[in-house]
Amino acid sequence: MKSRNKKECVAMLLAGGQGTRLGVLTHDVAKPAVPFGGKYRIIDFPLSNCINSNIDTIGVLTQYQPFELNQYIGNGQPWDLDRLSGGAYVLPPYVKGKEGEWYKGTANAIYQNINFVDRFNPEYVVVLSGDHIYKMDYDKMLAAHKQKGADCTIAVINVTIEEASRFGIMNTDGDDRIFEFEEKPKQPKSTNASMGIYVFTWSVLRQYLIDDEADPSSQNDFGKNVIPKMLADGKKLYAYRFKGYWKDVGTISSLWEANMDLLNPESGLNLNDPSWKIYARNSAEPPHFAAGSADIQNSIVSEGAMVLGSVKRSIISHSAYIGLGASVEDSVILPGATVKAGAVVHHAIVAEGAVVGEGAKIGEKQKAPVKGEWQIAVVGPGAKIAPSVKVAPAEMVKEGK
Amino acid sequence: MNGVMGVIFASDNENKLNELTIHRTTASLPFCGRYRLIDFTLSNFVNSGITQIGIVTRSNYSSLMDHIRMGRDWDLNRKNGGLSVFPPFVLNSSREMYKGKIEAIYSIQGFIRRSPEEYVLLSNSNIAMNIDFDEVMAAHLAANADVTMLVHKAKTTTSRRLVVESDENGEVKDLYFSVTPAPEDKNLGLNVYLIKKDLLLSLVEHEYARGHVDFEKDILMKQLGSIKINAYSVKSHAAIVDDVRTYYNESMKVLDPAVREELFYGDSIIYTKVKDSVPTHYKQNACVKNSLIADGCEIDGLVENSILFRGVKVEKGAEVRNSIIMEDGKVMENSSVCYAITDKNVTVTSGRTISGYESYPVVIVKDKTV
Fold first, then answer.
1. Sign of CA dihedral B333, B336, B339, B340
2. Helix (H) or strand (E) run with residue A172 in it
3. Is A298 on the interface with B (CB under 8 A)?
4. Are residues B260 and A286, on separate chains, in Cβ contact within 8 Å?
5. Smallest Cα–Cα separation from A56: which of A8, A97, A20, A104?
6. Please, are residues B41 and B7 in contact by the beta-carbon 8 Å criterion?
7. Is A102 in CB contact (< 8 Å) with chain B?
8. Span A365-386, pLDDT tens digits
C-alpha cells in the first residue's frame, strides 16, 4: 500500500543527554534545553536547521529531565513544525508489551523508535544531536549522500591536530570515503572530526539497529558500535565536509565561549541572517529597557531585560535585570536572572532566575584560558547569592551562598 | 469568560494620524517597540477568555491582515470562534463605505446574531491598556446595568474626548465631548462598551433606520435616562491614541517603568506577531540612555529618551534623541534625529539632521530616505 504519510527524509534528534559536564545548569533540565544567546535554547539550532533544510518530520528523543523540553517544543509551532502530516514528535522511552526500558545508547534510542520512523516510510534518516551550536543545510548533505550512493554519510569538520584527540576522527580516502574511524585517538592520522550528524539510508540502518540490539556485547552506541560494524562490513560510508561555525557546548567553558562568539563578528557565528533564521519559542516580553544610568557596549541584550548598570562584552538574556551600579563583564546572564545593585560579575554564567545580591562578587577577570578551559563561575538556576558574598572563578553554586 | 463576544473597530480617527496611517489602519499602528495598537485589545480579550472576535475594517487593512493573519499569535486560531475579519462593507443603500460605528455594527449584525454569546464587548482598536474583562462583567452584573462603559481619569486635551459624569454608584448622568484642555482630571470614555447583544442590535437597527451613524452621540447620549449606563473606572494605565501628538506622548510615557509595569505586567500577557529577530547588539561606541529597545537592533551611536522598533540600525556618530524609530529604520553615520517619528524602513543618510519640537514631532513617511 502506498503510504500517504511518506516522507523522503525523517530527522531523529537525540535530546536525552544529561550533560553532566554542565553541572548545575543541567541539574533540572536536559542539555538541549539550556538557554543560549539571549533568547534561544541549544535545541533551537538543530530544529531550525531542520525546517530550513526542508525536513518537516522530526522525532525528538528525550529521556533525562524531559519535562521542560517537552513543554518547550510543544506542538512545534515556533519552528513551523505544527504540520498536518509530520511535524515535531517528542519520543520518550515507553513500555512495549511487557517490557519497557530506558534508551541504553544512541543506537538503541533509534532502535526503540523503528516503528515511528517506519510510519513515514522514509528513504533516509538524519540523526542529530542536541548539543551543538551551528547552522547547517542538511539538504546539501543529503544530496551528497544520494550522489555518492552512500549507506551512511557523516558530517566532519576540520579541527587542529591538537584538538583532534578530543574528537571521533574519520580517516578518508581521496573520494572522502571513510576507511577508518578512531574515537579520540592519541595520535590522530587526520583532522576530520565527526560532528555527530549522520545521514543513513534507512533500510540499511534499520537492519544494523536490529542486529546491534541482538548483540549482547554491544553498548548500542553509534560511534562505538554501529559505525565500526558498518565499516568492518565494507558498507559505503562517506564524510561530508562542513565549513562554517560549529561548536560542541558540552562544557561550561565551551558554552561560555560559544555565547561570546556571538559578540565577535570574526567568529563566523552570525544569527542575524534572514535566509537562515534560528527560531525560538517567544517569551512575549516587551522590548528591553536601558535606563538613564545604563552603560552598555559590545553586548547583546534581549527582550524584557532591564539594565540600570554597566554591561560590557556580555549576553543579557530576556527578562534579566541588571541593577544600578552593577558591573557585568564577559558574562552570560540567563533569562530572568537578577544582578542586584553594586554586584560585580566577571567571567561568569548566572543561570535562569538566579539572584546575585547587592555588592556580591561573582568570578574574576581572566586574560586567557588555563589549560584550554576558562575558569567560569556559575550561579545555578534559581540560586540566591547573599549580598557581598564572593563566588570564586570556576566555582559552581547550586542553591545559594 | 463565557457568554461574551468581542467586536473591534479597526479604523478610527485615521485622518488625524496623518502620515502614520497612510499605509495602515489605526489598529495596526506600531506602538512600544514591537507591538501594534490592536495587540492590547486582542490580548485583553483573549486573556479574559473572549475568543469569538470580529474585527471590522474600513480601509488600508492589508497591513492589519498581515499582522494578525489567522490570529495564531493570540491563540485565536480556533475551531469554535476565533477571529473573523470583516473587510470594508459597502452599504447597498448609500453606495459608500460605512461612516460610523452604527453602520459598522449594522453591517455585521448577522455575525453578531449568529454567535452563541449573550453579550458583546465593543472596543476601538486604539487603546493601550491591560485589564481583566471578568471584573468588568462582574461590575456590570452587580450594577444591573444595560451598558457598562470603560472610563479612566485623565486630563482633556485638544483631542476629542468623551467626558463621562457619573454618580457615586457609577451610574452615568451626563455625557459630552470635549476638545478643550483643562487642568483637572476628568472621567474620560475609553470607547469600550459591554452590552447585551439583543439590546445592541435593536438600538442599532432603530438608529440606522433613521440615518444615524455615531454610536456615542446617537445611541448613548440619546438613551441616557432610558437605559442604565454604568461607568467602570480603569485604575491602571490606559492610553488612547488618536492623533500624532497623543501617539508621541503616549509612546514616551512608556519609558516610565511604572507605566510599563502596568501595561505589560498586569493581568494580561500582551501578545504580538512573533518575528524571530535576534537580540539587539550594542557595539563599541553605543551609548543608550532611558530608551526602550526592541530585538534585532544594531547600535553603535547615541540613543536617548527614545523608542527603537525591531531591526533599527544606529551607526557610529549618529544621535537619536526623544524620537521613535520604527521597524528597520536606519540612522546613518553622524546624522542626528530629534523629536521625530520615523515610520517603517526610513533611512536618514549620513550627516543629515532631522529635528521637530516636543509639541510638534516631525513625522517621516514609510520607506523614505532623508
1. negative
2. strand A168-172
3. yes
4. yes
5. A8
6. no
7. no
8. 998 887 778 999 999 999 999 9
Check CB contact under 8 Å for A287 and B34: yes
Residue B62 is predicted with a pLDDT of: 81
What was the pLDDT predicted at A3?
61
Say if residues B185 and B152 touch (Cβ distance below 8 Å).
no
pLDDT confidence tier of residue B19, bands split at 50, 70 and 90: confident
3-state secondary structure A291-313: CCCCEEECEEECCCCEECCEEEC
d(CA B70, CA A199): 36
Residues of B with CB under 8 A from a CB of A: 32-35, 72, 255, 257, 260, 263-264, 269-272, 274, 276, 278-296, 298, 303, 307-308
Which residue of chain A comes nearest to B311, CA vs CA? Answer: A272
B292 and A37 within 8 Å at the Cβ level: the answer is: no
Decide if pLDDT at B74 tops 90: no
Nearest-CA neighbor of A178 among A228, A125, A124? A228
Mean pLDDT across the stretch A240-244?
Answer: 94
Cα–Cα distance measured from residue A159 to residue B122, given in angstroms and rounded to the nearest whole number: 63
Query: Cα separations (Å) of B183 from B155, B156, B359?
Result: 7, 8, 17
- CA B233, CA B165: separation in Å to the nearest integer? 12
- Cell 516610565 -> residue: B256
Measured over the CA atoms of residue B115, residue B121, residue B124 and residue B126, the dihedral's sign is negative
- In this structure, the number of other CB atoms found within 10 A of the CB of residue A106 comes to 25
Residue A52 contacts B where some CB pair is shorter than 8 Å: no
What backbone phi and psi angles, to 5 degrees, belong to B365?
Answer: -70, 150
